[in-house]
Structure formats: structure tokens, C-alpha cells
Amino acid sequence: METMKRRAEEEDVVIIGGGIAGLATALAMKRIGIRALVLERSDRLRTSGAALSLFPNAWIALDALGVAHKLTSVYAPLSKGYVTNLATGAIQEVTMNGNKGADKLHGPRAVHRTTLLEALAEELPPESIRFSSKLVSIEKQDKGDDSIVIVRLEDGSTIKSKILIGCDGVHSAVAHWLGLSTPVDSGRSAVRGLSVYPQGHGFEREVRQFVDVGQKAGFVPLNDTELYWFFVCQTPPAGEPLAREPELIQREVTEKFAKNFPSTYLDVVQHAEVSSLTWAPLMLRYPWDVVFGILSKGNVTVAGDAMHPMTPDLGQGGCAALEDAVVLGRQIGNSLIKNGRLVPKGAVQALDGYAKERRWRAAALITASYISGRVQQGGERWWMKYLRDSIFYKFVFARMIAVMHHDCGKLPTVLGDEVDQSNERE
């Protein structure tokens, strides 16, 4: 009976992917009174990445979603950062203003990815997330002026939905269905990990970065005993695959790629919790493909890395995903208020408004992140060093930091805790 019941399911909103974008979008739907079903291919919450930094724009979005307080009570804001040029020894200080005024609430913090996902998931209604759900196909079915989306899963079940949102990452099946270009390899790869000092690491709440020709590394405290760290370098030549075994990844960083880095950094890597280590190429979607690409088609759209994969040089991947969720919720919520319920035409207009609002913002973030990474890991030529040390850090980087203070807005207040879920069920 359960199998037959699942084969005939209908939902208002189906979200493919249970990462940051997917869970945040589901929560935004809940806040405006719409049930959303999240289909996650993994058998549990995705925790790859160990940790991430969340900047003011992310905290504004988390405020709108109603969960910021769950994290700000655990993670302290970062006060400043230091960027050390290993070739010259020059150190640039970057002020983050994380301890004053409004920035004390919205200041940058490093958080465990698992904790962020759990904070979002805990707010969702029971059975909102269906694990081990592998998408097989997407089909649109038009009925006059209306249309529904039919998703078919590997277990044979079929789900009809009024809105489909792809939050399924860099290699998004929904983005492919929309016709968006395939993300490209940036030519760089990143190792990420979590290090643990049971007796305390002794570092201040500051970001430490080290840059060299073709390399960048750094670490940031999560709390008194844990640090999140990364190492970025040019991807090894073809035929020289990236290490996959965690112990080998750690050895490659300490004994090969970063062997000339400061002992402080190497000590952090050597304290890594080996199971947290990942090494993967950095992907991005060309910004012009976002500007001119199809970000929504009828009642189907994408969010997070499915829309705007970018390099991590400004730490904006997760932040932008949270922005997406709030903007989607705002656009759909305004449609609910206008129409009194979720109607097909209103849904299409809401997704179109979302795509228009996010298009240039996403393209700007991709561009700024890419440029930041290329300049910081610039070559040995004198003009590249001059651009980085005398121009970029003093004048350009401060302007790029401004993108982290974007306000994505608030979610509209929809009368009542729940919207009538009988809205024209087909």
C-alpha cells in the first residue's frame, strides 16, 4: 500500500538536493506557509566540506529565515584577517569589523557545515526530507494554461509538483534540463579539512591566509579547539590524478605542495581530523552563461551551486545559496499574497522575478571570486606582483568585500501559519 501511495504523490513544491540551498529554500517555503518536499540522493544530511565562512549577507539571509540566533549563540564573529605574501614576507591586514554595532550580529563567522544544515533541517516539518531519492527524469505536462512538473525517481515513484527547484549542486540535473551550460574547471583544486586541538589551539578569532605563486592557503578558528583550513593550488597536470585517500591527501599537502609554508600552517594540517579531508577541482559557470542563460523555465528553476558555481576565493558559495532561498521565498510569498493561493501563473511569474533578481548578482559574485583568486595566486612577473601587492589589496579588494554586505530582503508575512494546501490539486 505504501508503494502505491508514493507512486501517486502530488506536491506544491519539490526541491532536488538537500544541501544548504535545498534546506534553506524548503525553510523559506515553510515560513510563507507552503510545504516543500526535499529529495536528497544521499542517505543522510550532506556534510562534505567540514566548515565554511558565513559573511554579513549570509547572516542577513539566516535572520530572514529565522535561524541566525541558533548559530550566533555558538560561533563568535571574526575580528580581522591577515594575508601573508610568502615570496616577500609582506603582511596585509584586513579588518572585518565583527565586534562592533550591527556587525556584531552580522559579522563574519566560520561555522561547521553540519551544524548549519542541522539548524535548517530542525525547523522543517517532519518527513520534509526524503533521503536516498535519486532523480531519473524530469517531465513537464501542460494542461491548457497550466503546467505541472513530473519527477521520476530511481525507486520507480513519481511525484507531480507545481514548482520544481533544482538545488542539486555543480553537476545539477535540473540545470542541465533547463539548458544551462556545463560548469568548467578553473584550473585550480582545493583541499579542505578540519583540525582538532583537544587542549586548545591558542589562536585569536582571526583569519590567516598565505599566498604564493600559484598557491593559497589559510585557516580560521571555529571555536577554542577546532580550526577550518584550506589549501588551493594549480590542478596537477593530466595523468597526475588528485589523491583520494585522506592520509595521502594530508601527506601530499605537508610533504609536497605546501612544504615551504610556515610551520604554523603545517602544524594545523598535521592536526587534521583525517576523515574530514577532501580534495576536488574548483568549478565555475561562466558569468555570461548566467547572465544570458535560462535560469527559469515556466515553473522550474535552480538555486545555489546549481545556478552559480563559483571559486571559493571570496567565500560566497554558501552565502549566495542562502540569499537565493530568501529571494525565492519572497517572490513566491508575494505571489501568494496577491493571488490568495499558489496558482500556476503566479508561480511562473514569481520564478521569473527571482531569476531576474539573481542573474546579475550571481554573475558579479562569480567574476569577483575568480578575479580575486587569480590575482592572489598570480605569477612571478613584476607587474603581477605590483598589481597584487600595491593595487589589489589596497584598493580593489576592499571594494570586492562590499559584495558581502548585500541585503537580500525579508520574507513577506502571509496571514496564518499555513496556506490552504488544497490549492487546485490535480
TrEMBL record:
The keyword Hydrolase does not apply. The chain crosses the membrane at residues 12-29. Pfam families: FAD_binding_3 (PF01494). Keywords: Membrane, Monooxygenase, Oxidoreductase, Transmembrane, Transmembrane helix. One of its GO terms (molecular function) is monooxygenase activity. Residues 12-368 form the FAD-binding domain. InterPro entries: FAD-bd (IPR002938), FAD/NAD-bd_sf (IPR036188), MOase (IPR044560). Belongs to the 3-hydroxybenzoate 6-hydroxylase family. This is FAD-binding domain-containing protein.
